[in-house]
Automatic annotation (TrEMBL):
Pfam family, one: Beta-prop_KIB1-4
Protein's recorded name: F-box protein SKIP23
Superkingdom per UniProt: Eukaryota
KIB1-4 beta-propeller domain boundaries: 84-344
């Protein structure tokens, strides 16, 4: 007996249940493009789902017009095994890109590491066009950034937002941020100001969304989660007691990692660098630690295998390097005073990257190139 079932024969009442189990916008688009029955079974999103840029209160100056912007990191893979993304990714491997949304303008392509716009030679950031039927497009993660009218807000170092599903209304959403001085801020949709969490302390380094909750790490590597109903912190891990200058918190393959960033003792400066002395200082090396949740202990990680960690300006994540153009396993990609660089855990070497590793530098520099990385 043939065990195969024609998917088109599924009962019509199952289509909405299947569609609304999809949490990512790109999966919803893909589902609705299958056939007329799929498209009519679910809308693209709820009418009151979050829309970006979203107007929010400024973390410090309430009189300034402030917006929360959202970008999504995608892995794009050619379905036929041959890349049609040249000159961006002349390879059969996948391509990593970040897409920023806007209601009134075309989608903007960004570098996943530096958040720089990928621009055409004429200086515009018009997006590429491609047929999604030719590619597999998988959402890797989302990132958020706070902008004042005409410029990025320097009041916060990191902001996260939850939930980001098309099936939740904006009124159910909340945001959490790390102020530059290390304080932890919280805001519900519709609030007219940010509320400080654990307001007596100012030693928080990073915040992420993990398993549907906000998780933060302090400068000692202690991870806590935020109880959004009481605005209390619940300790989740023992202190790491790492002696680095900055802790990065990220998820990889279902586990929590803290990457400890060590600065040079006297960081050199670029000639035109005007920022604070300790901001984006030159990196000397990193240490990687994995949280063993079962035993509640920290494990020193000496090798990431085929994974690569990306410590972006607005979000950190891990990728399977051997499936992506330009990325190497057991490496950490990051930005510091010297711009975009990569740290190799094998030999502890640091190498500068002039362009995003997914983009072929030789092609980008050619006279016939139609895209370049904006500076």
């Amino acid at each position: 007996m043939d065990g195969k079932v024609d998917w088109s024969e599924l009962p019509i009442e199952l289509w909405p249940k299947i569609g609304k189990s999809l949490e990512n916008h790109i999966d919803v688009v893909r589902f609705r493009s299958v056939c007329e029955s799929c498209r009519s079974s679910i809308p693209p999103s709820l009418p009151n789902s979050p829309s970006f840029p979203m107007e929010i209160p400024h973390p410090i100056n309430q009189s300034r017009d402030t917006f929360l912007k959202r970008a999504t990191v995608y892995v794009i893979e050619p379905s036929d095994g041959a890349s049609k993304l040249e000159p961006l990714a002349p390879s059969s491997k996948g391509w990593l890109i970040k897409v920023e949304e806007s209601r009134n303008h075309p989608l903007t392509l960004l570098s996943p590491i530096s958040d720089r716009k990928i621009m055409y030679p004429d200086g515009t950031s018009s997006p590429m066009l491609w047929n999604l039927l030719d590619y597999r497009v998988n959402e890797l993660c989302k990132s958020y950034s706070i902008h004042c009218r005409g410029r990025f807000s320097s009041a916060v170092s990191k902001v996260v937002f939850f939930p980001n599903s098309p099936w939740f209304g904006a009124e159910e959403s909340v945001a959490c941020c790390i102020f530059l001085e290390g304080k932890l801020g919280f805001m519900k949709y519709g609030d007219d100001k940010w509320t400080l969490v654990d307001d007596k302390n100012f030693f928080y380094d990073d915040v992420i969304v993990f398993k549907g909750q906000f998780y933060v790490t302090d400068k000692w590597g202690t991870i806590s989660w935020v109880d959004t109903s009481s605005l209390k912190l619940v300790q989740f891990s023992p202190p790491l007691c790492g002696f680095g200058n900055k802790k990065h918190l990220l998820e990889s393959c279902g586990s929590l990692y803290v990457v400890d960033r060590f600065f040079e003792s006297e960081p050199p400066r670029r000639r035109n660098y005007l920022g604070p002395a300790n901001r984006d200082a030159a990196v000397e090396y990193f240490k990687v630690h994995k949280l063993d949740e079962e035993w509640g202990t920290w494990v020193d990680v000496k090798n990431l295998g085929d994974r690569a960690f990306v410590l972006g300006n607005s979000c950190s994540f891990s990728v399977k390097a051997n499936e992506l153009t330009g990325y190497q396993g057991n490496c950490i990609y990051f930005t510091d005073i010297f711009d975009v660089r990569v740290y190799n855990l094998d030999d502890r070497s640091i190498v500068a990257i002039d362009f995003d590793p997914c983009i072929d530098k030789s092609t980008m520099c050619s006279k016939n190139s139609w895209v370049r990385v904006g500076i």
